[in-house]
Amino acid sequence: MDHTIDYRPAFALLTVSLDEGESIRSEAGSMVSYADGIDIETNANGGLLGSLKRSVLGGESFFQNTFHARTAGDVSLAPPLPGDIVHQRLEDEAMYVQSGSYLASDVALDLDTSFGGAKTFFGSEGLFLLKLEGTGDSFLSSYGAIHEVELTEGEHYTVDTGHIVAFDGTTDFSVEAVGGLKSTLFSGEGLVCTFTGPGTVWLQSRSMDSFLSWLIPKLPSTNSA
Q1: Architecture of the domain spanning 2-218
Q2: What is the distance between the alpha carbons of residues 183 and 178, in angstroms, rounded to a whole number?
Q3: Per-residue pLDDT tens digits for 103-126
Q4: Which chain regions cross the lipid bilayer (predicted)?
């Protein structure tokens, strides 16, 4: 399964070249185009309960698309927001992905919603994270550019929760408040995630929460006089 990623980092487009018999699974709504000889199947992967859990708790779509190649051809995919796409090959390992950053993956990879524990309660990723596990190719998307940070054993690295894309299953993490209690509860600021290596952390250069906080006060009011 070859691939190319064009127009990075602002308007990334993923093109996956499937050989005859190969398949790729993608988030619903991400398809841009596909070649003749490619069949598309839309279903609730993981069954009704698995798809419902992934949709309600993980923030992803209930249905997903699977592209099957009857003959060799290309499938192009893109995320809904302007930003980057990164490829990560998993080799019998796990990776945790924040809500909205999953784009596509090899059908051999298991995709499930994983409970992150009480320590994620105050994080923007919520109580649940998407978990990719197994061996195969995965593709993640972001709002803004993607920055990759490699952590050595025992190394600490702190990230604003709104800028997290994904992290290796080998890393440990904790969510904390930087400011005081008032700032944490009422300003929406001051929440960070501290990762401990070894492993890789993927960050996005922009935060949707910060953008919405800037945008919403500027929108015209719908109240009539």
Answers
A1: 4-Layer Sandwich (3.60)
A2: 9
A3: 999 999 998 865 454 445 444 444
A4: none
